[in-house]
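During data preparation, a discrete fold description was generated, and the record follows.
___
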Amino acid sequence: MPRRRATKPSRGQTRSHFLEERLAEEIISGRLLPGTRLEEQAVADRFKTSRTPVREALRRLEATGLIEIRPRRGVVVSTVTRERLAQMFEAMAELEGACARLAAERMSAAEREAFAALHEKGVVLAEAGDPDAYERHNREFHAAIYSGSGNEVLEESTQAVRARLAPFRSAQFHIPGRIARSNAEHSDVVAAILARDGNLAYESMRLHMLTVSDASAVFASRTRG
């Protein structure tokens, strides 16, 4: 069963990011169907907030492709086909795999030490089972690999695609047991990077990302209807 939806922002979370997360979850799960209009005032009234955080949340959701602005219709929920989503995750897997390969080859000793410590933090968070805390760690974990690649163009490209997939990637942590599996997959990536094995780092990260794609699809299928 999906976790109970939060009714207010968690500690350190802004109102606009809370709204973005809630609306994204409802779109991915099918509670908000393609073509549904999202009026700022109606959303603000529903969540008992002002229109400013709603406007900010909708702007970020538009960047992910989950919603679009149409002439004379305003903001509407987009249609994201399974084929399109699969293609996006396939591209993400290749980009992240490339980052992992270069990180294995280029990370300095200090960066490797910090990266190992970051992963140990993730082990603790995975054992605690807090989806929000682990999701924040997950972003930090992947960002460390992007940075460790030593290629700013690749890092920027990967971050851009990640931003579009962020709601789908977050959805996976709603599935019981997924946090533990994600951390185990991280362990494989970490081991390869610390061993300076670029090919294994690439393959481990690519497999991890394709598993994320499958988990996101499972979440959506379980919550629809």
